Structure formats: C-alpha cells, structure tokens
C-alpha cells in the first residue's frame, strides 16, 4: 500500500478534522503518496461522522463503494462512525480506526515516523470548511486536551462514538505548548483547547479544567485560548474558580441547546437557564472581547412555537450561534419522546427563524436543513410516504 486516496465526509467538524489532519501527515511523513483520484489508489482513507443518522448512512455507502473497487486493497474506516457502525467489522478489506484509536495506524501502515495523537496541530487546509464559527478558522492551532463526554444528552451520539472522557495529562499539554512556542517565535499566541467536553476535562484522573488553566496561565501571559465546547452545567460548577481566567479566552462555545426549561429536561440537560444567562452577562462584563458561541437544537420532540421563541430570545446573549435541526437516532432516548415535530411544522419554523434572523440582525446559521431549501420536493416526498403507509 503506497498510494492513498483520502475522502473527508466531515470537513466542518474541528475535532474530526484535527485527527484526520494528523493521519494525513502521518502518511506523508512515511512517504505514502496522497493521490487525487480513487482510480490511482490502492488504499482509501475515509473520515466519517456520526452526529446525524444521515451521516452514518453516508459513511456506509462510501465505504461500500471503495471496498468493491478492484484496485483498492484496504479501506480505512476512520472517525466517529467507525465506532458506531457495525458494518464491515468482519471484513478483512476494512480497518476501523475510531477517534481514540489513532495509534492503530501504526499497525496498518509500515512507518518510520509513528502516529502520534499529541502536539499542537494545524489543519490540512483542504480538509476543513469553516462552518462552526467565524472565530474557528483553518489556520488556528489546535491541541486536543480530551475526548469523550461526561454527560448523557438524550439526542447526542458522542458517547456512542467516543465513550467517556479520556484526558491528556496537564504536564503533557503544557509541554506541547511550550515546545511549539520554542519552535515558532511570535509576539502573541492563540490555541484552541479541543475537546468534546472541556468541562469534563480531567474527570478520569481527578483534576479539572480550572487546574489546567492554572497551569496554562503560567506559560506566557500573552497566550489566548479558544474553548471548543464547555457544557453549561460544568460552567456553572466551575465558574467561581474559572472567572479568574476569563480574559484568557478569546472564544467560548457554551452550547445552551434550548431556551425552554421543559425541553432541556427532556434533553437531560439539568441546569438553570437563568444561571447560565447570568454567567454569560458576567463574562461580557469582565471580558467584552470574549466571543460567545452556542448551538441550539430546534424541532426537538414536543417542541412548540413558544419553546422556539424562548430559544431565539436566549440566543441574543451570544455573539454567534447555530440553530441545528434535530436529527434522530433510532436507539437514542429522544427517539422515544412523542409527539414529533411534523415536516410541515419544521418548514414553518425554518421560515420563522429566517425572518427572525433578518429582522433582528441575528448572527446565526441554520444547519441540518438541506431539505428546507428544496421545500416543495420535501413536502411532496412526505406526502408520498404517507400515502404508501395508508395503502400497505
């Protein structure tokens, strides 16, 4: 295996792009040729996603396509879906490399330079589309502090893909940053602290995110950090000690997910929205330059227009946000919650949000709503499916 075709199905996810970039650089350092066409390759490396059921299904279709090509000796099923999809587990033509299994690349490929998940990393530019926030860019420098999550949201698939939190030791993170600074001399530095759950950092060995910040603050007073994701429940718990370091953060993703307490209970997100709102206002008072970002899941089962309007109101507390259409995994707890938001209601709400964004100058994106931009076909398809069901 010497010629590798890389196919990234997850170009808008920072954790995934970070790991995939490391895999590509591992291949390049060991003299594997990255080719532009699958017909020229003997190996396919496919980066996959498991955040939506549609993404899992796409991953299966792409991997199936590659393993059935006569010139492909091996297909590397890489990324989150490699852990959530059972297909191909017994197929010798496929190797599964999940987010916490990067070192398996050392077993698959002959190498002089081993695969290493540590260090400060910059994305392979062609493998990232800037979709999360205008403040997370392809030229940022990322350092993975942990993977996995300590929470159990009813709609989320991260636990299935990555399990509980696995953290890098504080000393290792400090060393990676110090080594980078010694190698690249600049007047100022900014690093993305990459994690699925920054607030759960250190849970696996008895430290926490504030202790990490205490150590990082000693390196260089000019360093700024971007917090990739901190659960509001952890923010509330850590805030009395974390506020001391708030001016160190140029960006914080604090995903509120909904403005409705009733919906939050159904999501298993157990915190007071008003407590979070107070902290967000305090952050802006202490550190006006800190950019606040949030994801909001809309069309969650049983959500009403009144719930949605609360979400839009609380969204005003953030500099930027995404409204993400709820997507259901059959095995998720949220799949058992009824009634579901109908297709027609989703289109009505997407229209409402779009108008809200225009009228309020809302700095936001609508995501997971490709169907919305082809509404007529979407409604016709839904009607046809309903007719089929009636006449079975």
In total, the number of domains comes to 2
Rg is 22 Å
- Kindly state the percentage of residues in helix: 25-40%
| Annotated CATH topology of the largest domain | pyruvate-formate lyase- activating enzyme
**Terminal CA distance:** 50 Å
Strand content: 15-25%
Name the helix and strand elements from N-terminus to C-terminus, one letter apiece.
Answer: EHEEHEHEHEEEHEHEHEHEHHEHEHEH
Estimated structural class: alpha/beta
Structure description:
By secondary structure, the protein is α/β, with parallel strands linked by helices. The chain folds into two domains: 3-108, Rossmann fold, CATH 3.40.50; 130-390, pyruvate-formate lyase- activating enzyme (Alpha-Beta Horseshoe). 37% of the residues lie in helices and 18% in strands. The chain contains 13 helices and 15 strands. Strands 6-7-10-11-12-13-14-15 form an eight-stranded mixed sheet, with helices on both faces. Helix 8 (232-242) links the parallel strand 11 and strand 12 (249-253). The longest helix has 18 residues, at 343-360. The protein is globular. The termini are far apart. The model is unreliable at 382-392 (pLDDT under 50).
